[in-house]
Amino acid sequence: MLTERQLEIILALVYEYIQTGEPVGSRTLSKKYLTDHSPATVRNEMSDLEELGYFSKPHSSAGRLPTSRAYRLYVDAILHRPAPQMSDMGELVSGLDLQLKGLDERLGEVSRFLSRLTRCLSVAAVRVLDDLRVHKVDFVRVSSVSTLVILVFDGGRVRHARLPMPAELTDEALDDLAGALNHQLRGRTWREARRTLGEFLTHWSVPERTAMDDTLDRLEEIMDRERLTVSAGGAVQVLQAAEDGRLEQPQGLLRLLEEGDAVESLITDYAAPEGIRVTIGPENRADAMKDCSVVMASSSSRGRQAVLGLIGPLRMNYQRSIAILDAVLSALNPAGDDGR
């Protein structure tokens, strides 16, 4: 159990290191933050905290650096305090252009804006919370062994995907498949229909059942993509962090920017249903993110969830990053409620 003085030392050291990027010594802490305690007293406490895993020492003559354990304590303290009012937030967010017509354009603008403002990799996403309804499914054979499946959603949006079909499946059988699938979907959400389709398929022949199983898997993939619209940016900021020595493994984060599935998984795995979630260093499952922190902010309104995220070095300015995400999220939500 940490004493109150030890807690003060940890919070002060993390804050100072975030501001300066230099190892922090006992004299600095005593002079700037713990004025009632001598450097010798602070030094002894820092030594104990190093043994407890909160600090590390780069070399014998230097001050201490915070470990991921110290960052976690610091972030938890921030999250449990009322958010401070930052006078420049309104002015900063006023530079964000949300008058763009398409959702993809708005999210792209938000992710670029966040990266410029925070010098971190950023993600912006909108997830549809209400279940989707499919108006019609149709098949168009494009070769003897492949077919185009076409989905028409309520509201008129159309999506399609190519999938293999058994060669022995006739055009008449394909029409029967489409008719059966549309009958199951009519007047129901995708989730409702999906629960009963498995039992429905047990009465079909093997080729037809195989074709329908493949179709349902592909439809599920389309539904997942349709529910989540994502944009990510910040390659320049990642490279700058690597040059500054704030980030040791930039390659993994750069690959993340290029892989749509990886960005979508990041949103799914790290974002809370509502509010702020911060994941620090070793808490991240991916090896490429072990020296990174992930800050996610989420808010739901009118059947949609807006998610904003920052991925940056452990020495990121957490308090300011959280304030920026909150401010941009408030600006984005009204725009995110419009249609696609």
From TrEMBL:
SUPFAM superfamilies associated with the record: GAF domain-like (SSF55781), Winged helix' DNA-binding domain (SSF46785)
Superkingdom field: Bacteria
Ranges for domain Heat-inducible transcription repressor HrcA C-terminal: 105-322
Residue intervals of the Winged helix-turn-helix transcription repressor HrcA DNA-binding domain: 1-72
Protein's GO biological process: negative regulation of DNA-templated transcription
Keyword list, A-Z: Repressor, Stress response, Transcription, Transcription regulation
GO molecular function, one term: DNA binding
Gene3D superfamilies named in the record: 3.30.450.40, Heat-inducible transcription repressor hrca homolog, domain 3, Winged helix-like DNA-binding domain superfamily/Winged helix DNA-binding domain
Lyase as UniProt keyword: no
Function as written in the Swiss-Prot or TrEMBL entry: Negative regulator of class I heat shock genes (grpE-dnaK-dnaJ and groELS operons). Prevents heat-shock induction of these operons.
PANTHER family referenced in this protein's UniProt entry, alphabetically: HEAT-INDUCIBLE TRANSCRIPTION REPRESSOR HRCA (PTHR34824:SF1)
Family named by the database record: Belongs to the HrcA family.
The name this protein goes by in its record: Heat-inducible transcription repressor HrcA
Source organism of the structure: Jonquetella anthropi DSM 22815
Gene field: hrcA
